[in-house]
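Design request, tokens follow.
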């Protein structure tokens, strides 16, 4: 059950960035991660009034455009993303769906590319965790903790905490598509 990563940003794909995202996603989910390098880029997601891209629109585009062949796809971009009620989002996932998107736009640390990429890798794991049905975690160091600021992202580890890892492994052992719980957030 491989996970596909797909650079869909406006800048050229960066080998180091995608390599780090891949390593951290592989480590967190203990599964094969493959990079998909299709040349298509999102269309119809730009909101001219806000000058941002709709994260929901990105998910729809990914779902419709990605050729499949893996269990999940994570679109990685550099454009600024929003959801209607929020100023911006680091990313968004279809809870228990097959697509997630993450953006480096609000994670950039000027002059510190390594920190920027580390943040992007954490939020990548976070959004993919939602597609597996994992919800927000109360542990501030768990990658599934809710992050409203880059400082909160920096507090997190790039990994699932033991409790979240148990839930994820349980879902794998039982062969379910996702881990289920009776709540329903997703950001
Ligand atoms: Zn956790
Ligand atoms: Zn979240």
């Amino acid at each position: 059950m491989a996970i596909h990563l797909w650079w869909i940003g406006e800048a050229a794909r960066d080998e180091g960035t995608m390599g780090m995202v891949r390593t951290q996603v592989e480590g967190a989910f203990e599964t094969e991660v493959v990079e998909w390098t299709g040349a298509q880029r999102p269309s119809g997601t730009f909101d001219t009034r806000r000058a941002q891209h709709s994260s929901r629109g990105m998910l729809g585009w990914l779902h419709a455009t990605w050729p499949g062949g893996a269990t999940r796809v994570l679109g990685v971009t550099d454009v600024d993303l929003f959801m209607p009620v929020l100023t911006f989002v680091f990313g968004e996932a279809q809870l228990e769906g097959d697509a997630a998107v993450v953006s480096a736009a609000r994670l950039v640390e000027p002059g510190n590319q390594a920190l920027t990429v580390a943040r992007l890798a954490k939020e990548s794991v976070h959004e993919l965790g939602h597609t597996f049905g994992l919800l927000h975690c109360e542990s501030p160091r768990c990658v599934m903790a809710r992050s409203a600021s880059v400082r909160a992202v920096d507090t997190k580890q790039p990994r699932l905490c033991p409790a979240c890892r148990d839930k994820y492994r349980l879902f794998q052992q039982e062969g379910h598509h996702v881990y289920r719980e009776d709540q329903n957030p997703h950001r």
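Comment from the thread starter after seeing the answer: thanks! The chain has a mean pLDDT of 92.
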